[in-house]
Amino acid sequence: xxxxxxxxxxxxxxxxxxxxxxHIVDExxxxxxxxxSADVSHTVRNPFTAGERVMMVSKAVRxxxxxxxxxxxxxxxxxxxxVSHIESMSPSFDVAYSNNPLVVQLFEERGIEVRDSPxxxxxxxxxxxxxxxxxxxxxxxxxxxxxxADVIDEFSGVQRLQTVAKDDVSERxxxxxxx
Length: 179
Hints:
Layout: E1 3-8, H1 15-25, E2 30-35, H2 50-60, E3 68-72, H3 82-89, E4 95-97, H4 101-109, E5 113-115, H5 127-135, H6 146-154, H7 157-164, H8 169-174
Parallel strand pairs: 1-2, 1-4, 2-3, 4-5
EC number: 2.7.7.1
Family: Belongs to the archaeal NMN adenylyltransferase family.
Enzyme class: transferase
């Protein structure tokens, strides 16, 4: 049996993430989805709480054909022990999926196989672009699974993002200091 691990902030979980999940489940028997930066919320870059993202992801992958576990992972800001921190918070896994060079390096240093994550429609499906569309009251729901849009609507996520963007974080947003 092979269990895969895929981590993301999922701010929000979008159709590119879902396409990646569909790709991964063709290669594994079980999947662990790590909600990264679980300790951060109510900012322009990370507007949604870990619990809200667990709801988004859980509902968006409910129909996949393999057992799937959604696990919040807090940031620790210590790269040397980051993978062991993940391992302490997650079911064990055999392979990780990422394109982030640092993440790949850290998993490989720990002896965990890393497989590339194909990018899906990256020009349209990027969290920072979707959040910018939410801020501008532009169309964004076509870029996320319908259930994710419903979850975001349930807790007035767009309104929250627009509200937090009005504080000092908005200066960093306008300066392009995001993702």
